[in-house]
Structure formats: structure tokens, C-alpha cells
UniProtKB/TrEMBL annotation:
Any single biological process term in GO: L-methionine salvage from methylthioadenosine
Protein name in UniProt: Initiation factor 2B related protein
Similarity comment: Belongs to the eIF-2B alpha/beta/delta subunits family.
Database matches in Pfam families: IF-2B, NUDIX
Gene Ontology terms, MF aspect: S-methyl-5-thioribose-1-phosphate isomerase activity; translation initiation factor activity
Domain named Nudix hydrolase: residues: 8-142
Length: 470
């Protein structure tokens, strides 16, 4: 950023690029006119339409291509502030994008970069928190950022509401968003301990974060992975707190913000690794002609890692997420197999006439009895595959196994099916249930689980739910 001499506010754009829960921080070099040596996001003057300018900045400052390796998530309300040292008013237009890769090429405007937790943008006083051996908190305590960077991030950060309303992303991706919400709030509570006049209250922190975790648990009731990953993070935080002692020697110490921040940072890394390992295990099974339906990030990763001779993709009405999968595979220069799209209604025909070797789908939830909850159409596909003798693999991290017997199947908007004026009832079920006997294996980060082994993992996950009884 450079400044001008008039009194008109200077409009700039700032993008946070996210990958596996971390965001990209860039350190401003001597080539820029302001805030040299400070850390920020991808930024630049909003010389025209901010929506167009931010894509230009991403391309120029990272060599990543918006719409290809970088996808738009949301924009936020502009942040307005005055910098008294510069005598300038700034209007920052914040954006959030998801990046498929962490490989970037820096322009001359920056001399260093790091993918790290956005909580590193907070000014955490190292003397106000017992950081122990936490590298993340030590980095956060020493990072100098451009003004209002955290405020800009908060305008585009995930929330309970955005998770509940998201009908585009799969369960695995949304589970990462839930951990980000917990992480961000815990990080802010830790940072606030350094404010003058603020007296840390671990019990109050624990109550606030437990209440937030409770809301996240029910944000998407059909997605077990959200509940399991929140439960895992909170159970780990409670365990850490229970092992601590306060100054009086009392061992009954609550899971405060520091413990939750640490457990969510670890949880994000664990979740991303589990999804990647599940995809790698599934890739070993996918040879020949493979058919899939809907959109699963884990399935997409498995297909890219496998060596199929052809991929068939059912479009997955009404949102047609399968089209996105087909386009992404076709646009991937490293993916050599031809890709064919067809209607959901044609799955039985394709299976009977195209010599399909394997069906692979994702899962929003795997029930304790091995039945699979996934996008509507999965049951029809699995039944047709069973008729043709085609094996069906479900790719899902073990955190997608549900501890609940009951189901809460979501439905989509009426208008997605029919928006006419006739007096017609409309059904738009978003999920269906595929019986366990139509699934050959649930492929996880631990390998392929037979139906009998599912129950053992479910009992393990149930053990994480006890944090609420702290």
C-alpha cells in the first residue's frame, strides 16, 4: 500500500487464503511504501471493482489462479479505520478463498510467507498465558501484523450460522470449519488476557467455549463427523485441564481457552491427515472404470491419487455437485483418465452397459450398524451396483462413524425441485440411507473396515462424549 495526500479514504482489498485450516500470511518487503516488515494477507489497492481486484492481487502475489487452484468462499463488510501515524483513513475489503495448494511464488512486494493459524494475527502477551511448549502461541506472541488484520479476518471467518447454512461443502470440509470456529474464539480469549484490567477467569472461559461447542454439535445434526471432531477437541482440552494444577495445588482446573486453542490446532491437523490417509487407502482399490456420485473431497483426492482408466460421475441433482467434480478432474492436467457425466437416473444403465469395475462414494455419516448416510441417489447407486456385482467402497475417516442410532435427514429447498404455481407437494430429500449389506467396505485412515469392526470404533467415539460431564 502507498498513500495519497487528499482526504479521501484509501480503499484496499485483503484476501485470506485458507488451506487445511491455516491461512497464508505474507511479510511486506522494502518494495512497498507502508507497513514494511509487517505481516498481512494478499492485499492491494482497490482501484476498480474490489471483487475483480482481489483476484488480480492473488494472481500477482502468489502465482495461484483464482477459479482454478483458488476458490472463492465469501467476502465481508469493509473495515474502516484511521492510522494516526500516517494520517490516512483506510477502507479494507476482506475476502476468504480456499487454496488447493500451499506452493506459491512470492512477488517483490513480500519477502517471506507462512501458512499458519489466523489466531497468529492476535497480539497475545506471552506473559499473560502459560504457553508451555506451544510453538503456535510463541509465534503469535511475536508476530507484528498490519493494522486491523484480525478484524478483517473476523469479517470472513466461519461461524455457527455459516456452517448451518452451507449446502455446498461436504461433511469433512464443514467439520474443519467447526474446529476453526472453536479455535478462533479460544485464541481471542487467550489474547484478551493481556488487556489491561482483564483478570483471566478459566471457569468463565470454559463455560463460554463449552456453550459454543454445544451449538456447533447441533449445527448439522446429520453429520456425525462434526460432532466427533468437536467432541475430540473438547475431550482433549478437558483432559489437559484436569492434569493441571492451580496455584493452590488444586487439581480440579477447568479446560480453559489455552487448552481449547491447543486441542483445536491439533484437531485440525489430525482431521486433515485422517482425510488424506483415507483417500490414499481408497486409491489403492480404484482400478479400471470407476463410478461416483455427488461431491466428496475425500473421494476426489482418492481419484486423483488412483489410476483409473475412466471415471463416470452421476450429476447429483438438484444441486448437481457431480458436475463440479467432473469439471475439476477434467481440468486437472495431472489426471489422465477420461471423465463422463451422466444423469442420476442413468446409474443402473451405466452400470449394466459400461463394464464399471468399482463404485466409490463418500459419506456424511456411517451408522453404528454400517449403513451409510450420504447424498440422495447413493442408495439407488449401491442397489444397482449390487445387482450387477460391482463392489461399492465408501471413503470416510473414522470420525464419520455416528454414535447415535437415530437419524436426522436434512431436506433441501422446495424451489430446487419445483417453483411453479400448481398445487403440488414437493419432496426434496438431501440424504438417503444405504443398507450395510450393499457396502463392501468402509475405507478409513485405518484401512478398510468390515461392518463388524464399525461397532468397535463407535464405542471408542462414544468415550469422547464424556467431556460434557466435567
Amino acid at each position: 500500500m502507498t498513500t495519497t495526500t487528499d482526504d479521501v479514504p484509501t480503499h484496499v482489498v485483503t484476501a485470506f487464503l485458507r488451506n487445511r485450516g491455516d491461512v497464508l500470511f505474507l511479510r511486506r518487503s522494502d518494495a512497498v511504501g507502508t507497513y514494511t516488515g509487517q505481516w498481512g494477507g494478499v492485499s492491494g489497492f482497490a482501484e476498480g471493482d474490489p471483487d475483480e481486484q482481489i483476484r488480480t492481487e492473488i494472481r500477482e502475489e502468489t502465482d495461484l489462479e483464482p477459479g482454478d487452484s483458488v476458490s472463492f468462499v465469501r467476502s465481508g463488510r469493509p473495515v474502516e479505520f484511521e492510522d494516526p501515524d500516517l494520517g490516512r483513513e483506510w477502507v479494507v475489503h476482506p475476502y476468504l478463498f480456499d487454496a488447493e495448494s500451499r506452493e506459491i511464488e512470492l512477488s517483490e512486494e513480500h519477502d517471506a510467507h507462512e501458512w499458519t493459524s489466523p489466531t497468529d494475527a492476535l497480539e497475545i502477551d506471552p506473559e499473560a498465558v502459560d504457553t508451555g511448549d506451544s510453538d503456535a502461541l510463541e509465534r503469535a506472541a511475536g508476530r507484528e501484523t498490519v493494522p486491523k488484520l484480525w478484524t478483517a479476518y473476523e469479517r470472513v471467518a466461519p461461524t455457527v450460522r455459516s456452517i448451518a447454512a452451507d449446502d455446498e461443502r461436504g461433511a469433512a470440509a464443514l467439520s474443519l470449519r467447526t474446529l476453526e470456529v472453536l479455535r478462533d474464539r479460544a485464541g481471542l480469549l487467550v489474547a484478551e488476557r493481556g488487556d489491561p484490567g482483564t483478570d483471566p477467569d478459566p471457569e468463565a472461559e470454559c463455560d463460554e467455549l463449552a456453550a459454543l461447542a454445544g451449538r456447533l454439535l447441533e449445527a448439522r445434526p446429520s453429520m456425525a463427523v462434526l460432532r466427533n471432531r468437536v467432541n475430540r477437541a473438547m475431550a482433549a482440552a478437558v483432559a489437559d485441564g484436569g492434569d493441571a494444577e492451580d496455584e493452590s495445588g488444586d487439581e480440579d482446573v477447568p479446560a480453559d481457552a489455552t487448552a481449547v486453542l491447543e486441542s483445536t490446532l491439533a484437531g485440525l491437523e489430525r482431521a486433515a491427515t485422517a482425510d488424506a490417509d483415507a483417500a490414499a487407502n481408497a486409491a489403492e482399490r480404484l482400478e479400471g472404470r470407476v463410478l461416483t456420485l455427488s461431491r466428496s473431497g475425500t473421494v476426489l483426492a482418492a481419484l486423483r491419487e488412483a489410476d483409473p482408466s475412466r471415471v463416470y460421475v452421476a450429476e447429483s441433482r438438484p444441486a448437481r455437485e457431480g458436475i463440479d467434480v467432473a469439471e475439476e478432474l477434467a481440468a486437472d492436467g495431472a489426471f489422465d483418465a477420461p471423465v463422463t457425466v451422466h444423469t442420476d437416473a442413468a446409474v443402473a444403465r451405466v452400470l449394466s452397459s459400461e463394464a464399471v469395475d468399482h463404485v466409490v462414494v463418500g459419506a456424511d455419516t456411517v451408522r453404528p450398524d454400517g449403513a451409510v448416510v450420504n447424498k440422495t441417489g447413493t442408495r439407488t447407486l449401491a442397489l444397482a451396483a449390487a445387482r450387477e456385482g460391482v463392489p461399492v467402497s465408501v471413503v470416510a475417516a473414522t470420525d464419520k462413524l455416528s454414535t447415535r442410532e437415530e437419524l436426522n435427514l436434512e431436506s433441501g429447498a422446495r424451489s430446487a425441485v419445483y417453483d411453479g404455481e400448481a398445487s403440488i407437494d414437493v419432496l426434496n430429500p438431501t440424504f438417503d440411507v444405504t443398507p450395510a449389506d450393499c457396502v463392501d467396505a468402509v475405507v478409513t485412515e485405518r484401512g478398510a473396515l468390515e461392518v463388524e469392526a464399525v461397532g468397535d470404533v463407535v464405542e471408542e467415539l462414544r468415550g469422547l462424549e464424556g467431556w460434557r460431564d466435567r
